[in-house]
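Structure in, sequence out. Go:
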């Protein structure tokens, strides 16, 4: 299927590693112009090289902290000034701070909301003037815990639930401008965090054996790969999904108890 992404301009936050970096690679393979952004310049440079090795193309990057409104505006201004338009915004920057409610400080709450909720808000506010010119797509990455929060997951599951509500309301507010807004809810996907857990729990096992351990209770029988997540994200921001908005797709191998 031709996703018709050639020439589309996409900004991806938190794209120096993991799913963000892999999504950037897939979009680049599909012909999109991709702008990476994250806080660490060295990691961004590594991501640029990774994508060049994969695709033969060089992508741009802007060092930025999405919790800072001025930085968010800087990223979008770079895209608009260099390429004249913006078609896709993917909000991927985030972290997973999970604890029992009684152990979470007010600073912990504020830091989590600043990154996972207000980071989205800053980027969307900055991007809207460009997206409204010709329509486009916003894709927010969150976690299945945002739909069905388990115990001891404050503040992260609460921030993610707020992000899902934001996604749904924005899909209605922005539909008149032909701006689609969707989310993906990530389950267990191979990442630096998961690999560290593997090395701490079972360094004697191969990754393949560890990823298929029944303790993870994944119906498809294994931990997912970043490429699998990136493929779904790329579809949702493409014209192939032109009638999809206001939804949150689970990418979790069937493990979430919610739809």
């Amino acid at each position: 299927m031709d996703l018709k992404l050639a020439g589309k301009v996409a900004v991806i936050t938190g794209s120096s590693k993991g799913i963000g970096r892999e999504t950037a690679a897939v979009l680049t393979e599909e012909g999109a112009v991709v702008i990476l952004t994250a806080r660490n310049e060295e990691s961004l440079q590594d991501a640029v090289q990774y994508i060049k090795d994969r695709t033969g193309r060089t992508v741009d990057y802007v060092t930025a902290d999405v919790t800072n409104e001025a930085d968010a505006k800087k990223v979008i201004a770079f895209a608009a000034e260099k390429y004249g338009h913006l078609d896709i915004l993917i909000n991927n920057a985030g972290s997973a701070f999970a604890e029992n409610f009684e152990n979470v400080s007010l600073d912990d709450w504020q830091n989590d909301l600043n990154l996972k909720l207000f980071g989205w808000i800053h980027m969307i506010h900055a991007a809207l003037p460009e997206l409204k010119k010709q329509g486009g797509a916003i894709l927010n990455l969150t976690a299945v815990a945002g739909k069905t929060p388990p115990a001891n997951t404050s503040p992260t599951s609460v921030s993610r639930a707020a992000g899902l509500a934001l996604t749904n309301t924005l899909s209605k507010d922005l539909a008149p401008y032909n701006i689609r807004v969707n989310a993906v809810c990530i389950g267990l996907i191979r990442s630096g965090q998961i690999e560290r857990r593997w090395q701490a729990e079972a360094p004697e096992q191969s990754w393949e054996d560890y990823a298929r351990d029944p303790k993870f209770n994944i119906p498809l029988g294994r931990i997912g790969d970043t490429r699998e997540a990136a493929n779904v994200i790329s579809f949702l921001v493409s014209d192939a999904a032109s009638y999809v908005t206001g939804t949150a797709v689970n990418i979790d191998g069937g493990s979430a108890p919610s739809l």
